[in-house]
What does this fold into?
Amino acid sequence: MGTGNLLSRPVRGITDILSSLIDWLFPPQCLICGKIPDAAPFLCESCYRACSVFDDCPDSGAHHEDKPANRVCVMFTFDEYIQKLVHQLKYRDMPYIGTFLGQRVGKYYQHHDIANCDALVPIPLNAVRKRERTYNQSSYIARGIASVWGIPVEERLLKRCRNTRTQTRLNRDERRENIRDAFVLRNKKQIPERVCLIDDVFTTGATTMEAARTLKRSGVRMVHILTLATPRKNQ
Ligand SMILES: [Zn+2]
It folds into this structure.
C-alpha cells in the first residue's frame, strides 16, 4: 500500500461525512416528481420509465428535395417528463442530465444503422446563446452517446457563422430561410466520412437539415441526424 493511500484516507473520510451530512440536510430529489431519485442522482425509476419512447423518423427529408440527411431518428416524445429534463439541462446548469440522457439514447440505438458513423457532431449554439448558457446542451448529449458507441465527438468541426433569429415563432419555410448558410466547417482538411449530427429537440428539422447540407457540401459522404425528442406526433 503506498503512502498516498494512507494520507488520502482521512481526507476521503471527511469528504464522505460532509456529503452524507449535506444529503441528510438536503435529501436529493427526483427533478420531475420530487421522490427519492433511484435511477440517477436527479431522477427516480418510475419517471425514468415514464419518458415515452418515440423512436421514429419524423421527417427524413421529405420536405427537402436535396435530401441532406441519410437517416433521421428521434428517441423520445417531448412529453412533460422530457420537457422538464431538457429545461433543467438548458437553463439550470445541469449538463450531466445531457450525458445521462445521451447514454440512454446511445444504448437504445447501439445496434441500429445510425450508429455506423465515424464521429458525432453536436449542433452548435449561436454565439449569443452560448454566452448566456456557458455550455452547449447537445454536446453533453453527444458525449453520453459517444461513451456507448466508442466514437469521438467533434465539437469544433461545425461552426455557426452568423447569429440567427429565434426559430420559435417561424413557420417551416421561414425557419429554413432564417437558418440558410448559418453553418461553416472549421477544419476542411480532416473531414470524417460518416457523421451523426446530434441535437436536443427536433421541431421542423430546419436547423439540423441545414447543418447536414453544410457537411454534405463539404464532402461528408453520409450524414445521419439523431435527436433526443420531438414535440410532433407519429405520422
Ligand atoms: Zn420521479
In short: The chain has one domain: 52-230. The helical segments are 3-25, 45-50, 80-91, 95-108, 127-133, 137-149, 172-179, 206-217.
